């Protein structure tokens, strides 16, 4: 049976009701999008601005995953993210927080500091799954490869994610705490990214909660002729609308306010959603 809801910090986001918006908070000096925040006060202000703009969840990361990025040690990543998570949790007691990491040590400390969700760009290792089960956390599992796949990419993504989801359930993680992300921009060529985006309905059909992260990605820049990541807001908006139409549950974005507009209109058309203030 397909999961009917996505549960984070006691909040049940009913699948198919509306699109959940995950705001990105990079606590790094080398974010590809140029929006990294290292100072604690700046990071908390950024989180506050995203919540006020309509983010449902904040995803905090301390290591860039852009092409050519420099690896960060566990100690340095912890030093970057844990104080921010604690401060954001103190400021916003009831709002969901995600930790963007694939390192078990960082995930454990982040959850202890107040995070609710692990968002791993390298799938679901046994160690990460054990931590998610132990801490009753939600786990976002992304498809990734060291090198682009030579075969049919959509089939590869679906096979890998379904296997990961089933393994997560076998290890005790409930279905409504497993989120699948096709990994746009990770281990794929630009053409393969487009193929995956054209087949999002097949990902949704697997039955698990789903997440899409296309925000400001280089493939969108190539298509739109936009070299600067901050100029790719409208290109990102196009993929967001397509994601809603396909049934994707959550979108991970830098530009929360613009995305809220996109999902509000798309959800109204596709999912019959209406704002609380709606009157005929």
TrEMBL record:
An example molecular function term from Gene Ontology annotations: dihydropteroate synthase activity
Catalytic activity: (7,8-dihydropterin-6-yl)methyl diphosphate + 4-aminobenzoate = 7,8-dihydropteroate + diphosphate
GO CC terms of this entry: cytosol
Record keywords, A-Z: Folate biosynthesis, Magnesium, Metal-binding, Transferase
UniProt keyword annotation of Nucleotidyltransferase present: no
Cofactor: Mg(2+)
Source taxonomy: unclassified sequences, metagenomes, ecological metagenomes
Catalytic activity, EC: 2.5.1.15
GO BP terms in the entry: folic acid biosynthetic process; tetrahydrofolate biosynthetic process
Involved pathway(s): Cofactor biosynthesis; tetrahydrofolate biosynthesis; 7,8-dihydrofolate from 2-amino-4-hydroxy-6-hydroxymethyl-7,8-dihydropteridine diphosphate and 4-aminobenzoate: step 1/2
Identification of the protein by name: dihydropteroate synthase
Keyword S-adenosyl-L-methionine found: no
Domain Pterin-binding: 19-264
Cross-referenced SUPFAM superfamilies: Dihydropteroate synthetase-like
